[in-house]
Amino acid sequence: MLRSCLDTIYSICGGYYNFLARYMGVSHFASRIGLPLSTNDRRLYALKNKYPGGRCFIVGNGPSLCVEDLDKLKEELTFASNDIGLAFSDTDWRPTFYTAVETSYVMQNSENIRMHLENSCVFLHQEVLRNGGYFKNALYYRYIWEEVSDDWVPSFGRDPFRGIYWGSTCTYNHLQFALYMGFKKIYLVGVDCNYPGYTGPAEGDEPVSIDMMHGRGHFHPNYRGNSKSIYPPNINRHIRAYERAKKEADRKGVLIANATRGGNLEVFDRIQFDELFPMASDKGLISDMPSA
Questions:
Q1: Domain boundaries of the chain, sorted by first residue
Q2: Angular region, 253: left φ>0, alpha ψ -120 to 50, beta rest
Q3: How does pLDDT run across 25-72, given as a tens digit for each residue?
Q4: How many CB atoms lie within 10 A of CB 189?
């Protein structure tokens, strides 16, 4: 009923709402109470349960990621992040959905994102837009950082229209989006939860030199090659985020399985990547990618 009323209102005076959302700050308030006024918010809202019962793959950037495996994902609905573009010269696969969290990273790599991900739906938080990062195929969401303490466990965003919660890893963002979209089977690939070459501090919120990764923390030696620093990969925080995601998935009857080749992530049940192909009727359709 609410959706029907909103559609009617928008068809009558959608341009007026977009004006309010952009120039008078109404959109932020409206999203907090569940009213999608701007075009961007309506597109986010339209993703809710868009793929009921389907499956998707969340592609991490860990050292176990095999570029050859990406070819098997060309007909799948996939999420990827950050420097996944380093694989594009070796595969025709492109992610259906892409995200990057650090505003500085997005601004530094804006041309690559536009060039290589023009057919992907790009998820970026609103701070990127406020810093001039406009992408025609992007959807902008509210990003929520919570105070981190010794016993910190992240909240889980059940509706990115209202907000996605920081969880110390882009994979946590993807899991929040995937559950919102209605997927019932979510497979992780290249999510090692392990940085074998990293020699920096195990914790902390201040950037450290990229040299501390020694080129072995991700699937490509030039990962983050345009950056001089990184944030310490806090494995303990990652694990807490994954445990929180599993709790939410179990509550909704959603399977999250780890199809990573190796790695140290044991929060989710393991499944062999090769066993997932072929799989018959429960795949999402690549043609269902949302317009942005």
A1: 1-45, 47-288
A2: left
A3: 555 555 555 667 789 999 999 999 999 999 999 999 999 999 899 999
A4: 24
> pLDDT: is 189 or 149 the higher one?
189
DSSP string over 26-57 = HHHHHHHTT---SHHHHHHHHTTTSSTT-EEE
Residue 259 near residue 276, CB atoms below 8 Å: yes
pTM of this prediction? 0.82
- 207/85: higher pLDDT: 85
- What single DSSP character describes residue 289? P
Name the DSSP letter for residue 188: E
- How many angstroms from the chain centroid is the CA of residue 74? 18
Report helix, strand or coil for 135.
Answer: coil
Overall average pLDDT of the 151-162 stretch: 92
Strands 143-144 and 164-165: parallel
**pLDDT tens profile 163-216:** 999 999 999 999 999 999 999 999 999 999 987 665 555 556 666 565 555 445
Is the Cβ–Cβ distance between 60 and 256 less than 8 Å?
Answer: no
Task: Tell me the residue type at 53.
Answer: G
Q: Which CATH class is domain 47-288?
A: alpha beta
Planar angle of CA 41, 21, 37, nearest 5 degrees = 40
Secondary structure in 3-state letters for 150-172? CCCCCCCCCECCCEEECCCCHHH
> Strand 229-230 relative to strand 208-209: parallel, antiparallel, unpaired?
antiparallel
